[in-house]
Amino acid sequence: MKALLLLTLLALCHAKPYKPINVMDFMKNNDIMQQDAGDDDDDDNDDYDDYDDNFDSNCPEWCRCSKRVLQCSDQGLTKVPKDIPANTVLIDLQNNDITEIKEDDFKGLNNLYALFLLNNQISKVHPKAFRNMDKLKILHLSYNELTQIPENLPKGIQSMRLHDNKISRIPKGAFKGMQDLNVLELSANPIANSGIEPGAFDDMATLYLRIAESKLTAVPSDLPSSLNELHLDYNKIGKLEAEDFLRLKSLQRLWLDFNQINYVENGTFAGIPKIREIHLDNNKLKKVPPGLNTLKYLQVMYLHANRISYVGVNDFCPLRARVKKTLYTRISLFANPVKYWEIQPPTFRCISSHNAVQLGNHRK
After folding, report:
1. Superfamily assignment of 1-236 in CATH?
2. What fold, for 260-364?
3. Are 317 and 325 in contact (CB under 8 A)?
4. Are 6 and 183 in contact, with CB atoms under 8 Å apart?
5. With bands split at pLDDT 50, 70 and 90, how would you rate the model's confidence at 94?
6. CA atoms within 13 A on the CB side of 139
7. Entry pTM
């Protein structure tokens, strides 16, 4: 269940421009109706078929109700509806004109599991708006006008999406105590390195972090050590240093494409021994980064659209034949000024098949 939820949330993270979430499909794929552990109702499987049945006669105006789902998307609402039934597990308020989340908008909704507020005009969230929402796991606030991260977020959130806002600062302790976070999406916000305060990610754990399309000029320091996947693509990072990834021992996938990287310090990747996939395409590298041949589990390496003119015989594979290495399934080197006919045959001795390497002429 957790793996399925994570895959679904990751798929949603790249939705740009705004694409509405099909709430009913989301519920079915993630068994939302089964999330209320305190509900012993044996008829949960019928909730999807009863979508047009009201909670009671007081379903909020302009909304559609099922037993525990409130859908009010695309209604031109300027504020959160009142009198939402207390047993609600999912609220869909996508694509409205809501400008503010007030203190009591979600008061008493202690069973809420998912809250979709995408594509509104929200610029302000009251510090107590999410109080007592201990069961909230999914909070999506993307495509709004937020200038700061909401305060006092529920600790149990698993998916937090804040991309495409106007957030420029991540204060110390912004995600304090969030140990169950699977996905944190902060892309397309004007976040610079100076806007990430020391301790911004203290006392939190997340598997997936994306700060793409921002104003980063270097890899942020003190990133969560729990990370499995890190996306810093479409920034202005100029170089990678040995200290950048020292804390990320569990990192398996790294996106640094579409930056301005022209230098990778020796030992930079030594701190991420479990890495399986690295994206360094569309940068300004003049040579293959050092240390790739020491990464035991590396299978996918994207280096296309750089300025690499030479590939050494030991750039990718271990020096010693007896050293165990997971075979590469993809090495891309096309759109570089390298003369591929000069590359020595043993250079790719640790690939899974000849189709795993992508070469080609450099075209201006």
Report:
1. Ribonuclease Inhibitor (3.80.10.10)
2. 3.80.10
3. yes
4. yes
5. very high
6. 25
7. 0.88
